[in-house]
Amino acid sequence: MNTASLQLDTHGRLRHFLCIKGLNYQLLTEILDTAESFTGVTEQTVKKVPLLRGKTIVNLFFEASTRTRTTFELAAKRLSADVLNINITQSSAVKGETLLDTLRNLEAMHVDMFVVRHVDSGAAHFIAKHVAPHVSVINAGDGRHAHPTQALLDMFTIRRVKGPDFGRLRVAIVGDILHSRVARSQIYALNLLNTGDIRIVAPKTLVPAHAESLGAHVYHDLDAGIEGADVIIMLRLQRERMQGALLPSEHEYYELFGVTEEKLAAANPDVTIMHPGPINRGVEMDSEVADGPRSVILEQVTHGIAVRMAVMSMAMHHRKEVEE
Ligand code: NCD
Q: Which domains does the chain have, with CATH numbers?
């Protein structure tokens, strides 16, 4: 069974959430609408709804994370679930316990959902294939493959700023596309929402083979790539995933692809600036751009909570059927 079909139940609803591929426009829009309904919870004095009361969620992170892990944790708490954070460097994995043994032991503690981040592409899918029928798995980033909740919170942010008609939007994704699970998920999501023009802007060495087949136009020149752009999403240079010299130097990258106020003149005057974080100031972009009035980088972080609440509550829904 492939990743896409594994994540939906027989009624086409979320059972796991592993990748954007395989979702359809309706389901993606339903997640964004559900997230919209949760934004209010965060603004209440008592920031909680009882939807997942009595449920246990484990954040299983085999790779470093700040924003993603903490917003998943907050999202789970705002849904009234009990949350356990497992830092894998302190777990039995370092003592040689296999991933499946770790999983079985956690399942024995009656866990209802795993939120998984792993350096290997396909890790969340592997876990989803092996969990008990009532357990849901949410992918919080696997290798270079997918980071679907990040893509969703990015779509949510764009929809809030630009409105629901993606058909009239030109969106440029600038940076290290080759190593980016975020870029892959974003391109699938932008295509599902029928975005007018999706662009990838990067040096030749940082574009995956067959990038055009994903449904994006490839540019190797920043000015041309961001011309008339309504949204520019910058991505971090993933040094930790680079083998060999794919880049001359960070300084040279900044000269050619770093976004500055001056270079933004090529984009639409009301261009929206985004970045999933963590930002390398002076590499992907200048601080003036990152902190400027057109930047929604911190709004992206805030929206991550509502979007993750939506995905977790929708995936937990299938459990009712298993119990009935
Ligand atoms: C990204 C990730 O980990 O994939 N960050 C994130 O989740 N906010 C991107 C990155 O590490 O550059």
A: 3-146+302-323 (3.40.50.1370), 148-295 (3.40.50.1370)
